[in-house]
Amino acid sequence: MFQFDTLSLLFVFLILIGAIPNIFYSYGYLPHIERKVHYQLHYFAFIGSMIGVVISANALMFLLFWELMSLTSWQLVLTEAKKKKTIDAARFYFLMTHFGFLFLLLFLLIATDGNLELGFAQMQGIVGRFAYPTLLFFFIILGFLSKAGAVPLHVWLPYAHPEAPSPVSAFMSGVMLKVAIYGLFRFLFDVLYPWPLEWGVLILVIGSLSSLVGVLYALSEHDIKALLANHSIENIGIILIGFGMGMIFESMQLKVLSSFAFIAALFHTFNHMSFKSLLFMGAGAVLHQTHTKNIEKYGGLIKAMPVTALTFLLASISISALPPTNGFLSEWMIFQSMLGSSNLDNTSLKLAIPFAIFALAMTGGLAIACFVKAYGITFLGLHRSSNAKHAHEVNRLMRLGMILMAAVVISLMLFMPFYIGWFDRVLTGLGHLSIYDKIFPDGIWHMHSVAIHGGVVSPLFLLAALIGITALLMYGYKALHVKERIHRTWSCGYRTSARTQYSATGFAGPIRRFFGWLYKPHEHFSKKDIEGGSGKFVDLHYEVHIKPLFEATLYESVGKAVNRISYWIYRFAHFEQIRYAAMIFNLTLMVLFSYRIFAHQFSWPTLAIEGTIMLISIKILIIGEKR
Prior knowledge:
Number of helices: 24
Strand content: under 5%
């Protein structure tokens, strides 16, 4: 019924270190939730269901806890359901999560031959006899990646996460998405192993597209929680890049490189849990004080909310993969795994891997730009609204939750060798080679790539250098005896007002124009004359809205098709008997009419009679439709 191998215990640990800070933060947030009993009931059931998923030993228990995880998270999204937007977001999430559940159910029914009490290892023999294993692979891709939020199944994230209470947003993005990553590991290794090269290439391409699409849409967002939700899509893509490289190397019998890539994917899974949870906590604290999710209404919060500002800065640096943070270390490992593929002689790999390298490099640069915008507009400069001007730090429990999660982020950097050792044991338990000694051949001070001509990085040396340079700059600042500060930072270098300082819309403008083919921006510009004490002046207002590509091209088309099919099913179900008879009779005549024409078995009088009868039948249908 339950199992406690190294993979399960690893993800139980991930859930717990994500849950403990979140519980403190959640109880600090609780006074601002009206449906407290509803929230607490579903909150702890949500935590228990995620643990249940990762320790389930058979298909039945896995499906049971997976569905419980979906239902409890759906109810948590509905906790503050006062607006139609929140209800619509919850409905969309419900549909998408059960879309994935349907494919998981199909997979497990086939893999267990209908006996859902079978364990994962027992499924491998049944799957080995199945004639279409690639079909099963697509089932788990649709099942798990719809929950993880990978492109093109990502569209629910920017809706559900912003509408959920902030502790829930942090938990869903930081922890729940990683349960889907656990599912990929479990089913690919225990049930579908070994796999062909093409499966790894597909995962790599999906990851590359997800990372690019996520960061590009995050840059255009001014809703702080939607911005962070899009970055979840980006980081799930980065995890999948490492995962795909591990599958590719494994299918080509490059065991050492495969283990290195899988360890990198696991490392980034933990890293994303930590810094994304912390970012959503910080966003929730700011939202709690300013009562808006619009970044343009923030500004100047660094002094009023110092703990929130400092922890948000730490998470921003980490998610931007700047050295020596944990985000930098895991992305460095993923880069090194891709650079180790230079000797592979395969056409598809020569196209897919350079594209993945380009996507990851582009993602890193754009992520830095995005969080310069997010942090600078939110915490620096002048207050952009009266709510921001009167904001203050959140309560102790919320601050404690953010500090504890910041400690998790720092521990993943400082104790990186410990985590790498655990990831290595997980891969060894799944049948891979142990490569810990290859990563740390001369002690824990230097981390080596296992690829030929690979790189070396020393996170502790980088941290010491960063601290030393910072201390030197502070000493130099004091030695210069600077006594007057000209003006606040982020004010364009001169005295200005809140309305004339740099905005989030202006910051993202050049990138938005460059990627206009993707964004399809709709700009709205208005102005009005206002009478003031010193005469007339013009108030200008500028807005820009981005058209979501996948929603506009894929989901809207599917939705229209489903609505049309549903309409006709409804109409057929309410046909009168005479119209049923007319429809069947008309279809029969059309078949006979077409057969006579193509078989050249007709005479003009016969065709005239049959055509007249067919027109009468069509008229009966039309009259019934109008009625």
